[in-house]
Amino acid sequence: xxxxxxxxxxxxxxxxxxxxxxxxxxxxxxxxxxxxxxxxxxxxxxxxxxxxxxxxxxxxxxxxxxxxxxxxxxxxxxx
Length: 79
Description:
By secondary structure, this protein is mainly alpha-helical. Helices cover about 80% and strands about 0% of the residues. The longest helix has about 35 residues, at about 5-35.
């Protein structure tokens, strides 16, 4: 097998892995968004404060839910 054929095969495998990970992240994001409306404001604030660095998708979903409830970004940061 030629060098370029091997390189192409590797690139296709890497591209497939990236697509799979993007699909998984999108699914996790949907799950987090569906989960947030059932949480209290204080639970959402805790998620924003404690989990934003560990789980940006979850933290962002909590932040967006608080915004949809009428809180400003400044109010959310001060919670």
